[in-house]
Amino acid sequence: MYRRPLQFAARSFAHVSACRAASAGGKGLDQEACFRALAACQQAGVSSPLVTPCRTLHVATQLRNVKETHQHTDEEVGAFTKLIEAMGFTGPLKYNKWKIKIAALRMYTCCVERINYDEFFDKCTLPDTLNSWFLVAQLHVWMCLVRMRQEGREGKYMCRYIVHSMWEDVEQRSKIMGIDAIHRKEAMKAMTETFYAAIFGYDEGILSDDCVLAAALWRNLFNRQCEDAGQLELMVEYVRKQMQYIDTLDGDDLLLTGEVKWRPLVEENAQSILKVVKPTYNDAGL
Predict the structure, then answer these.
(1) Alpha-carbon distance 260 to 247, whole Å?
(2) Helix (H) or strand (E) holding 33
């Protein structure tokens, strides 16, 4: 009648003893404690955790190490900052918020004024319309967002105002073109859906192979109306080299200045960006 509870208690005691003995292995294993744990396991009629579940202990150690490493890489945020950000406000940042806003506006300006849109329309056979301009602009805005997301809370704050500047610019351009309020509202709604759908597609493409990225460009940039594989190849190469180049830019400089220079669409040696520029030293090592 009392055999099962006693056996369960013996198993629990043996398991706890064995785990304590195993955890002491990294600090100098106590052999006597190990032998006592093994004897208790044999008396209880169970297998010792020191022998059979070693893989479980190893996996648990790996998970613990991963968690510890993840905590070291995360940005430390105080309780007050977490509270006000949970309420929808932005906590204190490393740099002044107004400087980050200005840098965000300047970065968006680089996406608009430093791009040769006529070349994109010609090489990709796109019509010269507001929608085609927006499709090319959102591609470059997305590349900036991907880069700035790597800069922690400050980068996410900057991304918010890059997107805000883009929508303000799109609305002003539609007003200048004489689009009435009703059609402008409908167009803005369609562009918003297109933008967020493109972000998901481009994110998947940049993390996958060239086929997935080409499919995302075909759906979003070419609006499913591209039959020339050379155009897709050109744009995949452009996005890859552009992302590699932006990743080499200093994050603090981007947060404070927002200055981005774009590589040309067509280059004689497009693979040159893949070659890491190594510093040259003289005989003295300087």
Answers:
(1) 11
(2) helix 31-44
CA distances (Å), 248 to each of 140, 251, 260, in order? Answer: 16, 9, 11
Task: Please choose, from the candidates 21, 93, 12, the residue with its C-alpha nearest in 3D space to the C-alpha of residue 255.
Answer: 93
DSSP-based three-state secondary structure for 229: helix
Q: What is the mean pLDDT of residues 126-154?
A: 94
What is the C-alpha to C-alpha distance for residues 222 and 234, in angstroms, rounded to an integer?
13
The two structure tokens encoding residue 54: 């070693």
Q: ∠184-188-191 over CA atoms, to 5°? A: 135
Structure tokens of 149? Answer: 């997301």
**Sign of the dihedral through C-alpha 138, 140, 141, 145:** positive
> Which of 96-105, 211-220, 250-259 has the largest mean confidence?
211-220
pTM for this entry: 0.65
Query: What integer is the mean pLDDT of 103-125?
Result: 95
Give domain limits for the chain.
92-248
Q: Looking at residues 84-96, what average pLDDT do you find?
A: 60
Q: What is the pLDDT of residue 80?
A: 47
pLDDT tier for residue 55 given thresholds of 50, 70 and 90: very low
- The phi and psi torsions of 12 (rounded to 5 degrees) equal -65, -45
Amino acid at 113: E
Reference 113, options 260, 257, 266; nearest CA is 260
- Cα–Cα–Cα angle for 152, 275, 265, rounded to 5 degrees: 80
**What is the CA 257 to chain-centroid distance, rounded?**
22
Which of 85-89, 243-247, 253-257 is the least confident region?
A: 85-89
Q: 181-207 and 229-247 are packed helices; what angle lies between their axes, rounded to 10 degrees?
A: 80
Quote the CA–CA distance of 132 and 139 in Å, as a whole number.
11
